[in-house]
Amino acid sequence: MATTHTVLLAEIREELGSPSTAIISDAQITRRMNWSYYELITRYRHPEIEATATITTVDGTQTYATPTRYWYTQYMRDETNNRVLLYKPLQWILAQDTDTKGPPQYHTRQGATNLLYPTPNAVYVITHYHTARPLELASTPTSTVFDGLEWDEIVTWGAVWRCHQMLGQNDQMIHARNIWRTLVGSMPETEVMMAEGSAQIIPMMSASPIPGNLAGPTV
Known about the structure:
Number of strands: 9
Largest sheet: 7 strands, mixed
Helix content: 25-40%
Distance between the termini: 40 Å
């Protein structure tokens, strides 16, 4: 079950020894809560934030808006022609002749738009598999995206050690960080997802941040 910002805030303050807001404010704790939260999201793949969007191409149009709260692409699939589009770096796409038209074979991103190549010459339905960026945790309230409480515990202790660090409480910081490291080390690392049509294995849970060019199969 996802945990709300309000609950996490109370748990973090309690683990800190219930200091007053004059010593450490809710805003200061929340900032460190979000640092811990996004570190966890970028370090591991979470199915809860996997999403799809449909691109319906227009004859002669190469660019299409990225989905709402888009973070990064996993891969794109041309449903009309039953095939996966290959990822190419932006520089490669921009170097091609935009007058070349046909069924799209390649994709890349430029700012808030997806670029397809060749420029579509007809209507094609393309499914965009991507990861959506979660909202920051705040008192609105928002909740974590995780289904499992074990992830929320890591967020809590990641925030606790950062709060101790801010307060100059080095012994407590080291103790809390060791707890956090133990919890992180207990998470599974073997679950993988294979992008369809690709030999690339995309880690579901990796010990290092997700690379920025993780955009599906390439050639």
